[in-house]
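User: Okay, second chain of the day. Same drill as before: sequence in, structure tokens out.
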Amino acid sequence: MPTQLSILVYKGIPVDFPKYRHTALHALYNKDTGDNEWLHVVGAHPFFKFQKDPQNPISEEPIVWIPVCTVPESVTRAMIHAACSRTAVRNEPSNWDWNCQNWVGEALAGLVDVEAVSEEQRGLAIGVMADVILEAEDEEFDNGMY
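Assistant: Same drill. Structure tokens below.
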């Protein structure tokens, strides 16, 4: 059974601003058995780390599931893991604004390299992810600046 790959977007915590919306990749390996994983970066700068979870690691359900693609059967679970685990986690001081949203885009680029995802599928999925992230409350308006 081919793997279904999606991007998940979660409501921001502690407040739902775009920069706090958590994103993750979700791989459904077998729909019949429910064999799936959440592949994502957790923590905060400078303590981000890559993590795989066999079930939803967030107490809330995602606000959006963005289908990316059906992965070709020639791409194995091990190849998906390797591409995601090779994706850099940027904890350097110069990367203070890097977060899980950036990681998802970079991980999808790694999945393009192993031919799990096409460049077009990656671009479309990231576009939808960006739109969903930007639907969060505007930080400037919330702070009473306008």
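The helical segments are 77-86, 100-113, 119-134, 139-142.

User: Thanks, on to the next one.
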